[in-house]
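Key idea: predict the complex, not the pieces.
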Amino acid sequence: MNLLEILSYGFIQRALLAGTLIALLCSVLGVFLVLRRLSLIGDGLAHVTFGSTAIALALKLYSAMSLLVSMPIVLLASLGILKLTEKGRLSGDAAIGLVSAVGISVGIVLASAGGGYNVDLLSYLFGNILSISREEVVIAALLCVGVILLLTLYYHELFAISFSEELAMVSGIRTSFINSILVLLTALSVVLAMKLVGIMLISSMLIVPAASALQLARGFKVCIALAALQGCSSVIIGIILSILSNLPASATIVLVNLLFFAAAFLARRIIYPKNSN
Amino acid sequence: MPGEVIVTTELLSCSYREGRVLEDISFQVERGDYVGIVGPNGSGKSTLVKALLGLVTISSGRATLFGTPLSGFRDWHKVGYLPQSLHLVNPVFPATVHETVGLGLLSCKKFPKRLNTSDKNKIKLTLEELGILDLKFKLVGELSGGQLQRVLLARAIVNDPELLVLDEPTAALDPETRGKFYAMIADINRTRGVTVLLVTHDSGTIGEHASKMLYLDKKLLFYGSFNEFCCSPEMSSLFGEHSQHLMCHRH
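Result:
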């Protein structure tokens, strides 16, 4: 099968389109999360997504309909993590761990009560972008436009709180509101990315492109652009490679991302040898 | 307007879990004052300025900025703030000096906040004024302590604030750079007419430049001019012969 033939299939076109949009969201948000030391929030919210998907499947809601259950639960969980960090005398990682444990345990209990792990739930665990439906592509596109619009409107505020929350407060920025926007947008992206790479690998979509961009970027906007470029390229290369080599798409996408990171890591040592330690 | 009150506190107290950090602090700062806030470790100096900026909750009493109670204060473009830089900057943060200084202009902007060409000129002029224009495209994580301090000062003054609050800005600097930094702040105070509140351990050097001294040890022990500070019985009892040393330092 040659490349043109691959690209002529509708399900592959849908996978490439939705995957690129989701990767764009995850990689841009990832820069803010990594710099705010909230990298693992994606992992925590992914576990909540697992629990919420188990609820949706228990209610016999499948595919795009399952988002109706997952979306509000994961959005609430993201705000829960934020509130626990702000008011609960907990550090960010402890709050993420707590919410994550609730999500995964609810998922396990519901899955076993429903007669064990069925194919649907496993597809959410490991992702199945090639099975994405038209409705899911439309939802991904709409949410992507909304998230990018909000990121553009609040770019400077997000930049300011990532640099220093204390300085941002004295600049009159409502840090609590901006933090809420950041975690809510992350929650939306995590729910969408579940289909792309699965719950097990979502955090890599958030962390790896940002980590690579931080190796090379000289400027905040450049960092976001590099992360977005890597995120989108990894999805396109990963999907095509997975079809050509008959490998699972989700893991192939993540491995391509990791190769990009290794290249950026080495390039930094060559380009900026003085600043490499 | 000289004589205009910029900062007021009335019986201001702050508490952390371990107990009271500030107790019944009352003072006023007038426009154009350069106030050095000194005191021993754990005396509440940083807590005081953080309380004035709304970063720490006031447990009792009140504070006003530009005549407005802190809870209703929204004119943050009138305030510039420089915290202890070493605790602030993430060494891998990918922002350039230009981008970092631009953050100081956000307080003047309405939603959606955007920087235009005149803002970029303002950033350039401020970098020139502080002698760091050549650092414009460097990353903040690549700067030395002294360079970083100047960049954060540029961020604090780029929006032409009327009040500049500095919290131990020279903690990481060597004595020579420290002296130059205080002189730079004194110059900003004189030429721009900016009111300055500066927290420091270094009561000798700050005495060379500050118009008023505020000595704190959970309670306000002294507030007045530097000469009064050196000659006051409170200072003699605290520093003994060192209070005279402070005086000599200035002359």
